Amino acid sequence: MEKDARRRLEDVLDREIDVARSLAATLAAERTALTGDSPEAVERKAAEKIRILETIEKLEAERRELWAAPNGPGLDGPGLDGPGLDGPGLAAAVAERWRVLMELIAGCRSANEVNGHIVHVRQHQVQQLLDIVRGGPAITYSPQGKTLAKALRALARA
Question: How many domains in the chain?
């Protein structure tokens, strides 16, 4: 792999790491917004998350393009394991960046799953409240922990 292509690949990975860190921070802020009482904050964080994910997709495409380029390492290129023009092989130069990126992405995936669970719980809570307002059965629990549905009067009629 020529020196310039290697430097570009390392640069793309560094940018991916920075964007992944930004995504992690945004997911944490989204979790805070989801447990808060501002739908506007949730909407802003979700929009920010989408923008960051688009950036990650662009960087991923750029990284794949560099990897597949004729002067790139490819899957079996000469620069993959052997010493490059400016030091250790590509694997040694890129492995740490790749490990950091994969750890960040795994953390983001977990954080996004937690946020999705919070959304699901909130949707369930809203549905229960709507059922109560509409006069549908309220779900309660017996002393044995079994669920019971009791029909209630509607709190309001339109």
Answer: 1
